[in-house]
């Protein structure tokens, strides 16, 4: 009997975990290798739009997420100084009836932990940091820093913005620092004095912003993430500690609502916002990329992880459509059906215009990766 092709997923972040859960569910032979020794409840929140929640339904964690996260009634955009509402985008019940799934904001650690729980333990290995790839033609050999190696027939690079798989396919090149940082803080709402916050608000000035939302169903924890210009970044660091004092300087003169959050935040971290130009290829031979490994973006549409998760779902759909033995056709179909959308989201995120005015977000939120009509690779090439 012919053996099932072995699929290795490098990285168990949000994209890799989604790929692993969906591949396992579809009966493929999959293993996941993650460099971290374990995952902790990192101090960050995340938006899960209806486009992502449809994938969560398929993975089987939609109901639990709906019980875990906050369901904002609106996305409010407000002026930094006056607090005036400059846009109000309906979410809540409207999202559920209009898009067929909820719009959630949730603690990133809680979300990731549900995703990891959806993967059987025996297919996930922690403490496996990939440091070398050997493509031998009929098989790929993966070498890890602990001195071990594994073989696979197909390798999915879900290893984030500094992807080793991307480096192997193209050449080692660091991502671009955009000249912006994001400060992040999560804290109990009980610490916030003097202002009643909406469930989800982005405060805007011309050169910076603060996105604020609750991360639990109980609304006992609130989160902010900023976008603030900063000339340079030491690329050897993925984040550094920040402080209330630094935040007070960066948001001097801003509305009382923003000040109330800064006053309440004990632990603030600061992250570089990184990007890459669209890659000339997403796959070669037996290797394929997804998520931040191929299209890292500024987080200003709150859709970076969503794109990684949609990529994962589309890749699995293409394996099923074409058959796993013809992986190169599956890769071409996958790329043809993901590049335009990922590049558009990358561009809008770069420009930081999303929902600043009362625009219609349907093109983003209504996307259903399982039912969107597939385009053929040749029609994409022909159109180029
Ligand atoms: C400040 C900030 C705020 C953000 N807010 C949002 C938001 O609200 N909504 C949203 O959708 N997105 C947001 N994003 C973007 C989002 O975090 C990323 O787009 C998303 O995490 C990409 O998922 P991924 O699985 O591709 O990569 P990652 O989540 O980076 O996962 C990669 C995984 O691979 C592992 N790995 C790396 N190298 C190796 C190796 N050599 N061997 C083995 N394992 C390896 C890593 O440990 C990690 O677990 C934000 C980003 C930032 C910086």
Descriptive keywords:
monooxygenase; alpha/beta; binds flavin-adenine dinucleotide; 6-stranded mixed sheet; FAD/NAD-bd_sf
Query: How are the strands of the biggest sheet laid out side by side?
Result: 5-4-13-14-15-12-17-16
Please identify the structural class as seen in this structure: alpha/beta
Strand content: 25-35%
Radius of gyration: 21 Å
Polypeptide structure, described:
The structure is a single chain. The strands form four sheets. The protein has an eight-stranded mixed beta sheet. By secondary structure, it is of the alpha/beta class. 32% of the residues lie in helices and 26% in strands. The longest helix has 25 residues, at 327-351. Strand 8 and strand 9 form a beta hairpin. It binds flavin-adenine dinucleotide. The site of flavin-adenine dinucleotide (FAD) has 34 residues, from helix 1, strand 3, strand 12 and helix 9.
Question: How are the SSEs ordered, and which strands pair?
Answer:
Layout: E1 6-10, H1 14-25, E2 29-33, E3 45-48, H2 50-59, H3 62-68, E4 74-79, E5 85-90, H4 92-99, E6 104-107, H5 108-117, E7 124-125, E8 130-135, E9 140-144, E10 149-152, E11 154-157, H6 164-169, E12 176-188, E13 200-204, E14 209-214, E15 221-229, E16 240-241, H7 244-250, H8 256-264, E17 269-275, E18 283-284, E19 287-289, H9 304-322, H10 327-351, H11 362-365, H12 377-383
Parallel strand pairs: 1-2, 1-11, 2-7, 4-13, 11-19
Antiparallel strand pairs: 3-6, 4-5, 8-9, 9-10, 12-15, 12-17, 13-14, 14-15, 16-17, 18-19
Helix pairs in contact: 1-9, 9-10, 10-12
Bound molecules: flavin-adenine dinucleotide.
Flavin-adenine dinucleotide (FAD) is lined by residues 10-16, 33-36, 46-47, 128-130, 158-160, 164, 182, 184, 225, 271, 291-293, 299, 302-306, 308.
């Amino acid at each position: 009997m012919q053996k099932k092709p072995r699929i290795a997923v490098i990285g168990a972040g949000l994209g890799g975990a989604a790929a692993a859960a969906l591949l396992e569910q579809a009966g493929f032979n999959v293993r996941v290798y993650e460099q971290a020794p374990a995952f902790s409840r990192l101090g960050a929140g995340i938006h899960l739009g209806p486009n992502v929640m449809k994938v969560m339904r398929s993975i089987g964690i939609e109901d639990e997420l709906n019980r875990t996260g906050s369901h904002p009634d609106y996305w409010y955009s407000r002026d930094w100084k006056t607090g005036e509402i400059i846009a109000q985008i309906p979410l809540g019940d409207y999202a559920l009836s209009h898009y067929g799934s909820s719009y959630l904001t949730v603690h990133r650690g809680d979300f990731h932990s549900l995703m990891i729980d959806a993967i059987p333990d025996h297919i996930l290995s922690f403490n496996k940091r990939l440091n070398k790839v050997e493509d031998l033609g009929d098989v790929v050999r993966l070498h890890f820093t602990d001195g071990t190696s594994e073989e696979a027939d197909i390798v999915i690079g879900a290893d984030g913005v500094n992807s080793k798989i991307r480096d192997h396919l193209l050449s080692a090149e660091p991502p671009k620092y955009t000249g912006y940082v994001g400060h992040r803080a999560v804290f109990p709402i009980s610490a916030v004095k003097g202002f009643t916050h909406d469930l989800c608000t982005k405060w805007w000035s011309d050169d910076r912003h603060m996105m604020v939302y609750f991360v639990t169903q109980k609304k006992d924890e609130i989160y902010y993430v900023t976008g603030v210009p900063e000339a340079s970044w030491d690329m050897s660091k993925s984040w550094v500690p920040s402080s209330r004092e630094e935040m007070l300087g960066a948001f001097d003169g801003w509305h009382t609502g923003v000040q109330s959050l800064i006053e309440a935040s004990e632990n603030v971290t600061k992250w570089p916002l990184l990007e890459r130009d669209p890659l000339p290829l997403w796959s070669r031979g037996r290797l394929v990329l997804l998520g931040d490994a191929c299209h890292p973006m500024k987080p200003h549409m709150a859709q970076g992880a969503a794109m990684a998760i949609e990529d994962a779902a589309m890749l699995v759909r293409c394996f099923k459509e074409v058959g796993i033995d013809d992986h190169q056709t599956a890769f071409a179909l996958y790329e043809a059906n993901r590049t335009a959308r990922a590049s558009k989201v990358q561009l809008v995120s770069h420009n930081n215009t999303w929902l600043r005015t009362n625009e219609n977000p349907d093109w983003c939120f209504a996307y259903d990766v399982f039912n969107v009509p597939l385009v053929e690779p040749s029609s994409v090439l022909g159109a180029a």
